[in-house]
Amino acid sequence: MIAAVVVDVPSGSVNKTFDYKVPPGLENWAEPGMRVIVPFGPRKLQGFILAVKQSSSVKGIKNITEILDPLPVLTPELIDLGQWLAENTLSFYITAYQAMLPAAMKATYEKFFTVLRPEMLSSEVSVLFSASGELSLNEVTKNHVHLLKKLQELTKTGVLDVVYKVKDKANKKKVKFVSLGNKTEAEELLNQNGKRAEKQKAVISELLSRPPGEYSLQEILHETGASLSSVQSLCKKGAVYIEEKEVYRDPYQGRNIKQTEPLPLTENQQNAITPVLDSIENNEHQTILVHGVTGSGKTEIYLQSIQSVLDKGKEAIVLVPEISLTPQMVNRFKGRFGSSVAVLHSALSIGEKYDEWRKILRKEVSVVVGARSAVFAPFENLGIVIIDEEHESSYKQEDHPRYHARDVAIWRGKYHSCPIVLGSATPALETYARAQKGRYQLAELSSRVHSNPMPEVTIVDMRDELKKGNRSMFSNELMEKLKAGIEKGEQSVLFLNRRGYASFILCRDCGYVAQCPHCDISLTYHKRYGELKCHYCGYKEITPSACPSCSSEHIRFFGTGTQKVEEELAKVLPEARVIRMDVDTTSKKGSHEKLLTSFGEGEADILLGTQMIAKGLDFPKVTLVGVLAADTMLHLPDFRASEKTFQLLTQVSGRAGRHELEGKVIVQGYDVEHYSIQLASQHDYLSFYNHEMKTRKLHQYPPFYYLGLLTFSHLELMQVVEASEKAASFLSKRLSPDSLLLGPVTSPIARVKDRYRYQVMIKYKNEPELRNWFEEIIAHFQKDKSIKDLQITGELNAQTLM
Ligand code: ADP
Ligand code: ZN
Ligand code: ZN
């Protein structure tokens, strides 16, 4: 029996399967989709069996060393999907398969020295091997680095050998349980006297007092004050059993989640859910866009669609942007479907994620709620995939494999003949365009469930405020409303759009801006540490007290960070209790949730924050939303800048007046005439869509054209220029006349980590060979020995140009 294995070497030359023999003992076990360990050159590597066959044309093939999984971890569907994924994202097969599995299942490798000729070792070296007969390189570099040279020499002369071991991080949590054994034995023990028996008797009585069953050993010890050794001697006598069992690490354990019942749908909801239910009923793949304003009852539609999928014995995946995967959100699904829900969230530990994932593989759950990568949940009877906030950019992975969760979901929908539901108040332009063309079905939910009106939005031009002599970052109207809110005991949310608006250091005399010496972007000021920091490479320096360029002392930090807003608030509204949420205050695990809970419990008047407060939050007492600097994102070199601004403003506004109290939104900025701000304030998606589509058409951007992007980076500028020019001329000879070739030009971020970046862009409608040409270019430079360390990434459907 032969297994075709793809091995853990992300490189173009091994981007294929290799044949290995399945040793006779493992023949009944080996199946496609299992992880294995195989010899590869001098190393041992992890790999995946993609197929098994009877024979191989390759001579001298080696044996599989070990099979790591009792059952396949990749289903036949996922094996196919991985191939498609790798080919369409220009990634290696191994990278695609690894992306589908929890991080815990990716092996790490360790190097060990072992002894071949013990008699040749000095006592100094010999003692290192005495414990286990082997010595990890890790251990040597940590504790015996002075011996490294010697060990290497001994290896050369054949006294020592080097072996590679694969470490599987996928460890399972085990807990000891105790249960009553032989009953007569136990009752006899109760009649015994003697001090030593006291604790043992306590254990027996405790177990007898409970319904028959097994109980956590730790709990029993805690209840009775007995020691482990007393229970162990009970075990020896046969009075109790101790058993070690695998348990799941459940981050949601102990939470009280209220059970909810399906709500009778409104007429609007009924209309919107019909195509979804039809698709489920007829086992027919459809992509359905549910376009509904915030509060229009999309989530209830998701819940009832899932119910109908579960009724058919099938499974459901719900994707939610990382940032909105709040406990509130999770509870809505757990409240309806209880313990059949698994949650895959990046805030979980590696072990917790692995456990949630195994519940899926073992079919112990039938609903998964999770961020982007949950789209790979290994269900075999998938009945629906729902993507909430489908326009969110976090659904695109900006690292290998550069996939979009929406594309993967639709692939799976076709495979399983089931519906894919895309939900949003502000669908991506691409999505809405497809719905208009009829490629997706469109379901519109045009009003809120409780028909409370959309909040009223006021736009404030901060230039006018300045003319009126108001130099603060809060307009007069915003100040008034914040004060009034505090007096009435209502809550406010202050949103600061920080993307592209980091607080930087500027010299007022010469205009010097502190820049990262390794990347072409300005450094961000962090007041708490008195530091300037680069968000791309992590470079840090102490904030200068004088301008490094002209020595002026008029160097200060500029721009509005959340810290600065918080300080201002303390000055002008000292009575306000403020909770600040940004990357600095939420870096600790669980802090995000803690801050939100305390705001929900009314412990603050104002929630101040960045992007992370824009979504999903639903607090009944919030009546005011203030947006500071609404226009900052408009000026980024990104063709989606207007779309992102519109989406963000719509989303933030949706935080106000979701319940009985009426909501009010105040939007501040300097460039507030822009259509994305004006139309967001009127809650007018369709006009925005039409306006933006004209702009995109004019400038030949998606959804009218796809963007192919090749990015080159190298430490030397000349190398990137040369390579990108070669690539551009290669492409220009081949592209069809309808496609446009732009560049090579420097990337919008021209240097990162000292590497210069150049790009070649292709705008195309139909270019079936483009993928092959990109692959050819990448392979060409990989083989070219005259350019070392050139990095190239290719993308066929780039979402951003950064
Ligand atoms: P969306 O997901 O579109 O933002 P939600 O599903 O959160 O909207 O619905 C907004 C509110 O309306 C929620 O509090 C929800 O419980 C309630 N709701 C939704 N559908 C109904 C219904 N059919 N009847 C009564 N209340 C509903
Ligand atoms: Zn940097
Ligand atoms: Zn200066």
TrEMBL record:
Q: Which CDD domains match?
A: DEXHc_priA, SF2_C_priA
List, for all copies, the residue spans of the domain called Helicase C-terminal: 542-699
The cofactors named for this UniProt entry are: Zn(2+)
- Keyword annotations from UniProtKB, A to Z: ATP-binding, DNA replication, DNA-binding, Helicase, Hydrolase, Isomerase, Metal-binding, Nucleotide-binding, Primosome, Zinc
Q: Where does Zn(2+) 1 bind?
A: 507, 510, 547, 550
GO molecular-function term, one example from the UniProt record: zinc ion binding
- EC number(s): the record gives 5.6.2.4
Q: Which InterPro entries match?
A: DEAD/DEAH_box_helicase_dom, Helicase_ATP-bd, Helicase_C-like, P-loop_NTPase, PriA, PriA_3primeBD, PriA_3primeBD_sf, PriA_C
Positions binding Zn(2+) 2 in this chain are 516, 519, 534, 537
Q: What's an example Gene Ontology biological process for this entry?
A: DNA recombination
Q: Name one Pfam family in it.
A: Zn_ribbon_PriA
Asked whether the keyword Metal-binding is assigned, the reply is yes
This enzyme catalyses: ATP + H2O = ADP + phosphate + H(+); Couples ATP hydrolysis with the unwinding of duplex DNA by translocating in the 3'-5' direction
Q: PANTHER family annotated for this entry?
A: PRIMOSOMAL PROTEIN N
The record's NCBIfam families line, in alphabetical order, gives:
priA, PRK05580.1-3
State the function annotated in the UniProt record: Initiates the restart of stalled replication forks, which reloads the replicative helicase on sites other than the origin of replication. Recognizes and binds to abandoned replication forks and remodels them to uncover a helicase loading site. Promotes assembly of the primosome at these replication forks.
Q: Can you say what this protein is called?
A: Replication restart protein PriA
